[in-house]
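=== Structural record ===
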Amino acid sequence: MTRSDDFKRITIVSINGVLERVPHAINSLVLSERQLPGAHCLLIAPALPDKCPEFIHHVPIGQLGYVEYSLFVLYCLRAFVKTEFALIVQDDGWILNGANWRQEYFDYDVVGAPVHLARVYGPAGPQFMSGFTWTQAPSHLKRDIILNGGFALRSRRILEAPAHLGLSVIVPPVAALIGPPYSMRFPNEQPLEDVQLCTFMRIQLESVGMKFAPLDVARMFSFEHLAPNLHDNLKLDDVFGHHSKLRRLTSIQPPTISYSISEQEMRAVYGEPRIVDLLVRYGYRVTFKGA
C-alpha cells in the first residue's frame, strides 16, 4: 500500500463559522492537501469565496460561535465525514511537514498536541491545572492530558461516539464577561470540545475502546505552545503539524503567517522563537502585529 492509499483514509476538514475567515481556512486545506496527497478535502462554512479549488467539497452551514463550533464537532461532524479518519485543520492550525506522518497515528481515536491544560487526580480529587503546571505534578498521579482539537486527528468512531453514547456537554457557570465587544469566559475553557472529549467524556469513551494518543505520540504529532521540560528535547523539524491562536495563515502566495502579537511579545513567549525559526526554514514569511 502506498502512502497516498493510506491518505485516502483521511478527510482533511476545516469547520469555519466566521465568514471573513473562510478564505484563510481554504488556504490551510490547500497547504495540508499538498502534504497528504490522496486525502479528501472538506470545507464546512457559511459560504464560498469566488475562488475555491475544485478538489475541496463545500458543505454550507450557518455562522457558528465558539461554543456552537464545539457542539458541531462533538455531535454533527460525523454526518459529513465518510472516511475512517478526519484531520481537522484551521487557519491557525495545519500540516507543516507531511513527511513526518506516522502510521501509528491510525492506532488512536484522538490525536492532538498536548496543551497547557490538564486534569490531575490528586489527594483532594481531580482538578484542572493550567499553564503547563500539570507537567510538574508527581508522576504517579493520574492525568487526563487534553489533546488539542484545533489541529487534530479523529477516528470516525470517536466522531460518532458522543451522540451514540448519549454523552452530554458539561458547561460550568460563566466566570467572566469580557469586552466590549462582550464575550463569555468559562473556567478552564471547559465548554471546548477537546476539553470535553479528553476529560468529562473520557471514562465513558475509554470504556467502549476509544484510544487517546499517549504523551510521546502527541508531542510528535503537533505542538501548540512549548513548555519547559515537555518540549526541550523535542526536535521541531520532526513534528507533523501545529496549532495556535497566535499564528494565522493569511496567504499562500507566498505562504505567510501573521502573528496576533508583536515581535517583542513573541520573544517573551517560552519557546516561540524556536517555532518562528522553524517556520522560516519551511519557507514561510512571518509578520508581526504593529510591524
User: Anything to note?
Assistant: Residues 3-245 form a domain with the Spore Coat Polysaccharide Biosynthesis Protein SpsA; Chain A fold (CATH 3.90.550). The mean pLDDT is 95. The chain has two domains: 3-245, 246-291. The longest strand covers residues 110-122.
